[in-house]
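ARCHIVE CARD
Drawer: 12
Card no.: 0347
Subject: one protein chain, sequence and derived structure
Cross-reference: see card 0346
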Amino acid sequence: MLVSTVNKHTSLCQLFIRISEAVWHKIAAYHNLGIEVPEIGLTADLIYELTNWGNITGKADCYIRKAFDESVNGNDVELYIKNNMGTYDHYALQAKVLKNDKKYKGLDTGYKTSSKYQWDKLYDYAKSNGCLPFYLLYNGNTNITFPYLKKYWFFDERQFGCSIVEPRVFQYFYKRKTKTPTYTQITPKYAYPWTALTCSKSSRHKMASSSQQQNYRAKSIGEIKNSLSGYKKVDSLENENPSSETNLSNELYSYDTWNPIAKIIIDNTDSRDER
């Protein structure tokens, strides 16, 4: 568990802020002891917090894979966030955790088995499904501060505990610079706090390139429900963890496609915490 102070009055914006801060401090504490933080554990924490918030507020439903294989599904999530137009903003989030040496590694994970890099799978998925793709970065205290954040952007470094970055940024570094980009190479130049998805409706699409925005379209609840084949609703937190015992179906899973472990449908209307 990351966040303990959640009640029926906690907004989605507040929840995202608290999750970011909790992830930031958790990774910092682990790294101070020289311990790496498992990526899958942080994603499980995130799914738990959104499911718990949904159970309390009635504003979120989480669906997870009926069968799970980390090599296929990874630690990635798909978010559908309801807007004031009655449709849902659609995001594909590829998780990546900062290592103890302050680098992001494993950008070529799965390449040997699929012949596609993570960013290729994300962009293919976004093109086919009309969503906005991002890397979801889990970060912790790097002993570096950016004093101007609070002055001009009204948040501090802890909001980079969960940050989002366009896939093309990691593609650029991997192909032309380094296969293991550092925290300071990515943040804050290319990164946005993930709270931009929920706290600032006027700027959420500015984080994506124009080509991605042209392909993007919001979804109806009917379209979302039609995409849930192979997923089961998490009705209680006891059933949160996906099973790894069931054999994967070739019809639902492929090493060549992006396969999120969870799809989460969230109602973010009537929020009073927008910035």
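Annotation on reverse: Confidence is low (pLDDT under 50) at residues 239-252. Residues 12-234+245-267 form one domain.
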